[in-house]
Amino acid sequence: AAIPIARALGKTLVISTATVALQEQVVLKDLPDLKARSGLEFNFALAKGRGRDLCLKRLDDRLRYHDSGETPLFESLGFESAGADQVRLYQSMLTAFSERRWDGELDSWPDAVAREDWGGVTTDHRGCTNNRCAYFKQCPFFRARNTLEGTDVIVANHDLVLADLSLGGGAVLPEPEEAIYVVDEAHHLPEKTQTHFSANGRLRATIGWLDSVQSLVGPMPQRFGRPDALVHLATRLADFAGRCAEGLGTLESAVQALDFEPRDEGLATCRFPVGQVPDGLREIAAALLEPFGALADELTRGHDLLVEAQEGKLDWERAFEAEDWLPGLGQLETRAQAMLALVRAFALEDAPGQTQARWVNRYVEDVELVSAPIEPGTLLAEAFWSRCHGAILTSATLTAVARFDRFLERAGLNGRMAVRIQSPFDFPNIARFVVPPLSTEPGDFEGHTNEVARLLPDLVADDPGVLVLFTSWRQMLAVLDRLEPSLKPLLKVQGEGSKQALLAAHAEDVKAGRQSV
């Protein structure tokens, strides 16, 4: 019903769900079914975050410098160069993209890609030079974004919606005022908001990063003929980085003196009641505001200078190389801004209605400071509900003891209309619910895993097509290790290929009369 209403009002319908997998279900199955059977005329498109798209500039950098004898600029900026296995993967990606057999999206690559491998060939908004990039016209991200223009229905996920709102709205998705939202799996939204607006950082790791800022940015003035602006920039960056590292050392010493409660092996936590940081710790954090703010500002200034050089506005030697430096400097800037947000969270009092939880995790080799909003409803009310043209929130699990009160409070929606709708599915006649007589509780990881692995062969024995769900990757992999080798040829395991490829292979086997699990 929201589709014709949105079209009549001249608004875009944005469907937001919890995961990329659910996005694909809506785009590949639900909306095509609706369009085919409803008589409604509308078009739709899938929107994903930039991190799921290939960056052709970074892919080219990875391959261009391999075995060339040169030091890649991205390696000078602290990023590792590709190993032999990665080079083979990246070359196959380039070939598939060039031959138009692949669209550059992580989710449509036929095989599983390790996070560290994919991280080497994607980027964030600060590392992207947009239409100044030599690969802009072929860029998978901007091609996908262009398809959103004039689209009736955009299918996004909560992370992308929240990221767009944090950038002011309208960066990737339509302006909230020009959109009607259907928020599916809405029970995840408060928690996603807490995570998105939280701040965290490890102190020793950050000190190590700061110690390297001078060596990372130091070669930049020489590379461009030592222009005064870059020489002064590198000098100031070295000064501010040194002051930040010294202040973090003082902060770490103070944090180590706190009372920690052991949690897991190698981890202990100190929580501050009602998020109130002790005065001594707050004063140390407050002293870091000025140097971290200055560091972030100088990195932003450096990024802007490189943009001007790339556009031909500055008379620098080798100005054409500015494009190579922009992604690395952009990532330095992103990290500096994140640390500034963390320092600010531990140094300043909370704004009214925006109480933060604050704690410290102590690991074997480092300590981590964390700050997160206790109740995300205020953030959602300000950034989302007060701006969007309209919103409908749906989920099978919004109520507690048949009431919406807790969810409405956490989501910042007190006083809004809520209704419970009974399921249309005739479960008593279409399903069986069977609880096997287990001898172990799920909390007993080893015992429960062994029992599941022992029962599973009999449970799947007579069915041509079976879906087995686990609540954790850890247990799924542990059960796989315990299964008989004879069963493994039947299995299609999440992570061993893209979801689309696994589902297609499963459907093909079942249709051909071959058992598939």
Would you mind describing this structure in some detail?
By secondary structure, the protein is an alpha/beta fold. Helices cover 48% and strands 10% of the residues. It has 21 helices and 10 strands. It has helices at residues 2-9, 20-38, 56-64, 73-76, 84-98, 115-119, 140-146, 158-166, 189-196, 203-217, 219-223, 228-256, 279-287, 289-310, 322-347, 377-385, 405-410, 427-430, 445-460, 473-482, 499-511; strands at residues 12-17, 44-46, 153-157, 179-183, 199-202, 261-264, 267-271, 356-362, 367-373, 390-393. The strands form 2 sheets. It has a 5-stranded parallel sheet with strand order 2-3-1-4-10. Strand 6 (261-264) and strand 7 form a beta hairpin. Helix 10 (203-217) packs antiparallel against helix 12, helix 13 (279-287) runs antiparallel to helix 15 (322-347) and helix 19 (445-460) packs across helix 20. The longest helix is centred in the middle third of the chain and has 29 residues, at 228-256. The chain is globular. The model has no long low-confidence stretch (mean pLDDT 89).
